[in-house]
Fold this protein.
Amino acid sequence: ESGVARNLGEFAPFDLSINESTAAALTAVRDAVISVDGADAQIACALGLARVEANPSVVSTIVARAIPALRTLARARRWQDVTRSVSRIADVEAYVDSVRPDAAAALREAIVPFCDRAFVVDVAQLCGSEPGQSYATAIAAALGAPLAIAWLEAIDDPTDRGRVRPLGQALCHSARRAAHAIVPRLPRLGGDALRSALVVLGHAGAGYEKTIADFVGDDDERTTREALRALARAGTEKAAALIVRRIEDGPAAVQPAAEEALWRLAAPTALGKTRELLGRRDFVTRHPQSAARLLERAAQSGDDRFDPVLEQLSSLRFHFWSPALARVGAKARGLLQ
C-alpha cells in the first residue's frame, strides 16, 4: 500500500530464511550446473530433436550438427561417453526406422563422416584389453554399417591394415547390423579386405550363404578357404548344403578345404552329412580319395550309426581294378572289426 514502509527484515526468519537444507539444495543445483557436459548435452539435445522430427532432411541436419561434439569426445578418449552417445544414435535410428524408414536411412548416411580413418584406428586400438574391448564392441554394434565399411576401406590400405584388423572381432559380434551394406561392396574389395568381409558375413548367419559361396573357386585358395569357413560359421542348413555341393562337384583343389569346412559345422550336422555322402555309391566311386578322408574323420567320432554305411562300403575291397576304391573298402572293413 502507498505510504506504508516496507521492511523486509521481518520476513527473514520465515519465507526468506536459508537453513541447512536450503543451503544443501542450492549447493546441489550449483554442482549440477557446473557438471553439465557441453558436448554430451549437445548430442542429447540433437538426438532428442531427431526423434521428435522424423524427417529425412531434418534428421540429416541435426545429426550432422552433433558430429563435432562426438569428435570432441573421441579426441578426448572419453570412450564411455562415446559409447553412450552412439548407443543413443542407434536407439533413435531404431525408433525412426519404425515410423519413417527413409529418415532412418538419412540418419545412417549422416553419421558416415564420423566414421573416418582416425576413428576406426582409435576404436581398433581399444580391442587389446578391457574395458576397451567392451567399448569397441558396443560402438560397433551401435554404428553398424558405416563403421564396418570404413573398417574395410582401412583393411584395403596396407598402411593401416595391421592397426585396424583387431576391430574385426567387435564387428563380428553385430555382423547382421552391417552385412547388408557389405555385400554390394564385395566386388570392389582387395584380397585382404574381401576375406575380412567374408568373416563378418559368416557371423551374420542366414541370408548370406549364396553370396559367400560365390567366392569358392580354384583360382584363389586363401579366399576359397575363408569363404568355406564362413559358410561353416553361418551353420545353417543352406550353408551345410553348399559345403556338401563343393565336396561333390567342386574342383579337386577345393574338396579338401570343403571337407574341413564340413567338420567345422555342428557335430550332428557334420556327421549326418558325412553319412549321406558315404552312403551314396555314386559319390564314393567318383571321389574315392575324398570318401577315404571323410571315412577317416568319421571313424574318430565313434558314432555307431556309421556301421550300416561301413558294411556297404566294405564290399568295395574286392574292386581290384580300382585301387582307390579297394582302399576305401578295406578301411571300412577294418573299422567294422
About this structure: Residues 32-36 have pLDDT under 50 and may be disordered.
